[in-house]
Amino acid sequence: MKEEIHIYGAGITGLFLAYHHVKRGDSVTLYEENKTLGGVIATKKVKEGLVEQAANGILLTKDIKTMLDDIGLKTLFPKKASKRRYFFINKNLSQFPISLFAGTKLLYSIFLKKLKFYPNLNFEDWGNITFGSSVTKNIIEPALGGIYGTRLNELQAETVFSKWDGSGTSTIFKEIKKNKMKTYGTVSFPNGMGDLVSHLIAYLSPKIKIQTGVSLSSISEIEKQKGSVRICISLKKLTPILGNLLNPEEKPNLLTISTVTRFGETRLTKKPCFGVLFGKGEGIKALGVLCNSDLFEGRVTGHLHSETWIYPKLDGITTDKEMESIVETDREVITKNREKAKAIYKTTWEGVFPAYDRNLFLCNQKLDEIEANWKKQGLDIQFFGNYRKGIGLRSIFETTMP
Ligand SMILES: Cc1cc2nc3c(=O)[nH]c(=O)nc-3n(C[C@H](O)[C@H](O)[C@H](O)COP(=O)(O)OP(=O)(O)OC[C@H]3O[C@@H](n4cnc5c(N)ncnc54)[C@H](O)[C@@H]3O)c2cc1C
After folding, report:
1. DSSP one-letter code for 17
2. Which of 41, 243, 360, 366 is the least crowded, having the fewest Cβ atoms under 10 Å away?
3. What GO molecular-function term can you cite, just one (predicted)?
4. What would the pLDDT profile of 150-168 be if each residue is shown by its tens digit?
């Protein structure tokens, strides 16, 4: 039966959700407080090339491919050379930064060790117990840091792997197998990620009602709404609206991220690559760097090289000049050369990422409870976003599928 769906927040979460409901034949109204749609995702065209404001790519699955075909968006696959991914460990670039012994231990932890989460341990301590310190420090720390925008001591395993059974009966391998869906690598689009937003809008516009300049301001307001309500606003904006519904330990911690896109004359690494991930204590402030022009065609004009550096909140850094100097210093640690950039573009997102820690785990439990209480009262209201079951676009796409 055709349902009436009201979606608040037209970032990618709201747009994906609107897409899924349109496919089901529902009647959708999308409300957005800004004038523009897409939330943090946008691509700026500058004279040196493309500058992504947030996501640089999306992990492709069969369902995402179907959606892209539907909205008429051509997929841009990465160049072959970008298969190379580096870790910067012990001041060196390495593709396999652990010893054979640590690698064997990692295999044991994945295939044979019973998977157990401990609510009071942060990810770093849990990782040391589960995989050993070498794997945790040299592989997991750099890999997750770049995705979650922070260091392992600010994350919690149970929150990051919320779909896994960590009660001590399963193994990591079994959980990966259970949750696995075939993926086809990270892709982008000819004019960058902004294409995804513009094509979704073009597809949805004739099929749904879109109201901009409309802001969700209270829970009681949506409880009165006729039809089903989907809350897709960011956690930063949702937390004050929820107010005292969240106990202090359920209040999420929010992380600030800065991205710096740098255009220069030379490549960061000798061979082209996807990017470099940085461990803790390597003398580098960045969490990771993506080598955009090695990764995708059409990211630069002429022979320039483009890199996007990702930073956690840096205390005391306020001006673009200070940020530029940090990027150049970080870069010099890798290249052993100081080369002036052609241009640098910086974006800072205050509180953009939910910290995937214990508070977020408890916050999500409370949101599940609130949804269940609404259901008992005959109300169909649900929360969606990058704080529910994964921060990336692929997770958001999957969790918004009805
Ligand atoms: C720097 C950076 C790099 C990233 N890189 C990647 C990547 O490479 N790959 C990947 O998969 N993911 C990446 N991500 C993650 C991904 O981009 C985000 O998780 C995702 O875009 C979040 O989308 P959203 O719609 O949930 O939130 P938002 O984009 O924040 O959208 C929320 C929308 O709700 C609106 N809104 C807010 N409050 C209200 C209100 N009260 N009433 C009505 N509307 C409201 C906002 O205006 C906004 O339009 C990255 C994120 C960042 C910040």
Report:
1. H
2. 243
3. oxidoreductase activity
4. 999 999 999 999 889 999 9
